[in-house]
Amino acid sequence: EAGVAQSPRYKIIEKRQSVAFWCNPISGHATLYWYQQILGQGPKLLIQFQNNGVVDDSQLPKDRFSAERLKGVDSTLKIQPAKLEDSAVYLCASSLRRPSGERTDTQYFGPGTRLTVL
Amino acid sequence: AQSVTQLGSHVSVSEGALVLLRCNYSSSVPPYLFWYVQYPNQGLQLLLKYTSAATLVKGINGFEAEFKKSETSFHLTKPSAHMSDAAEYFCAVTLGGSQGNLIFGKGTKLSVKP
């Protein structure tokens, strides 16, 4: 079974430029997450999708970040314009079931995209 | 709100020695707890998870963790460290259900000396 795919793996841009990251979750996984991992810290959730709908985007800086999952499969995360503090690894994760029920699903992570903003 | 605290940003052990990585959680309701491992330039891989079944949880690569409600802890252990265990380890908590997003600790980097 193929894992979560992300591209590109590395990206270097200058501040005020725009950038987009792509994620393809594990086949059949309904829930998709984007996390931001700043160097020396644990990942922080940016946005959570259930199929093509947003479940939680409370920590997404909406003035510059946007994300979509139009067909309930692939997802794109965009930053426009980028700031120096956006330098981080952006991780995509997916899980099988709906975020409901007694137990919680395992999240499977992709390799991440390392963004450097100069 | 729930949170996790990982004690020690860097732990160093000798090959063959006991590995102990500490995690304490804060949650107003019974949590679900996870340990993930991250190798350099890779994503996070699940080691083990606690979902309110057995309090002693066994994971991959010989790791295990014990949920202790009285101590609000979920420490990760392995009896004998291997060089291949060198990585960063993250403890995470979630309330599950509709609030299934993970709250991660800051991570503990494990070094293994030959």
Account of the 3D structure:
The complex is a heterodimer of chains A (118) and B (114). In chain A, strand 7 (65-68) and strand 8 (75-79) form a beta hairpin. Chain A is globular and about 40 Å long. Chain A has strands at residues 5-7, 10-13, 19-24, 31-37, 44-50, 53-56, 65-68, 75-79, 88-95, 108-109, 113-117. Chain A has 118 residues and is mainly β. Chain B has strands spanning 3-7, 10-14, 19-26, 32-38, 44-50, 56-58, 64-68, 73-78, 87-94, 103-104, 108-113. The relative contact order of chain B is 0.33. Chain B contains no helices and eleven strands. Chain B is 0% helix and 54% strand. Classes of the chains: A mainly beta (118), B mainly beta (114). The A-B interface holds A 4, 6, 31, 33, 40-45, 48, 55-56, 91, 93, 95, 99-112, 114 and B 9, 32, 36, 41-46, 49, 51, 90, 92, 94, 96-102, 104-107.
Give a topology summary:
The complex is a heterodimer of chains A (118) and B (114).
Chain A: E1 5-7, E2 10-13, E3 19-24, E4 31-37, E5 44-50, E6 53-56, E7 65-68, E8 75-79, E9 88-95, E10 108-109, E11 113-117
Parallel strand pairs in A: 2-11
Antiparallel strand pairs in A: 1-3, 3-8, 4-5, 4-9, 5-6, 7-8, 9-10, 9-11
Chain B: E1 3-7, E2 10-14, E3 19-26, E4 32-38, E5 44-50, E6 56-58, E7 64-68, E8 73-78, E9 87-94, E10 103-104, E11 108-113
In percent, how helical is the residue content of chain A?
Answer: under 10%
Topology, number of strands of chain B: 11
* Average of per-residue pLDDT values of chain A: 91
User: Largest interface, counted with CB-CB under 8 A?
Assistant: A-B, 31 and 25 residues
Task: Note the gap between the termini of chain A.
Answer: 37 Å
Overall average residue pLDDT of chain B: 90
Classify the secondary structure makeup of chain B into a structural class.
mainly beta
